[in-house]
Amino acid sequence: xSQMKIGSCKYTLLLNEQGGVEDDxxxxxxxxxxxxxxxxxxxxxxxxxEDGTELVAxxxxxxxxxxxxxxxxxEDISDDLVKVDIQGPLSYRVIKEVFGVEVLKNRNKPxxxxxxxxxxxxxxxxxxxxxxxxxxxxxxxxxxxxPKAKAADHFKAIVTKxxxxxxxxxxLGGRDENRTSAGAVGLPLMGSEYDPHHTPINAPLFAAAVxxxxxxxxGKEALARELATDPQKGLMIFVSEGIATGRKVYLDxxxxxTVTSSINSPNLSLEQRLALNSSRKNVNDPEGSAAIGLVWLxxxxxxxxxxxEDDEIGPRITVELYREDAEGNPSGKxxxxxxxxxxxxxxxxxxxxxxxxxx
Length: 359
Known about the structure:
By secondary structure, this protein is an alpha+beta fold.
């Protein structure tokens, strides 16, 4: 955090002593002394449930580690702001027409567009706004933090403009498909690929989120012990002929990993679906669909298919996705699938905004 520049964003993880993930979040540095922490929904509650489960808000977990000689103060501002994500190639145009092009410019070089993983902090009519060039879709876009007093009017204007341009109003299901389908490895999600009982080692964003060179942090010892064993686990995207939630991935009759996310995807090409060799009509129809997902693997297998230069899908390997019985044995008919090294669609999020500013 101390090395962050004012106006920059950082993706990071909140770990426990065992190296498990309690939450993932975005930090924004607003000034030399002010940071804004964007956490997942539901992680702002400290309480004990009727069954004895203890909930601890992210900020309370962090403040438990504050030293007596440190002056650190935390304020929950979530009731003052409404977050609306505007994502996709026309996001630049929507924001420009609703809020003005100045909110999209580099705060230090206004003649240029803002960089990836930076944000603008703007005050209008006595209200504070934040526009960060982030978003868990791996595509061009922004997360907009709007003052509650103005949020309803702004939201109507955003949706009206987006629909006018052929966009859609979507919820978390749309985000879930996007974070899985964009990029070669997808983006892990708290509660799916991340949880308090497993470390994030070898997850796609591990190196960006965790600095093992840092002198000390919660969970470092546990991570260091695991890294010393040279863990081979890894996260990969898969394509399957149907939703595979709760299934295990098998290769050559042996369990290879566990499905952590699965969702139907409209972004799969016909070629990507035909590579499943499925007999399902919905998979093979030109206007059909299939499922995509993420799987934690015990190790990354050698990808022996799709190695030809003219192969449109790229390196992959055929697998079967089984349910398992109480004894952990494969049960029932498997879903056909394959692991993909190239993913579904290219990630556009870090690409220059000149590609979309005039759309």
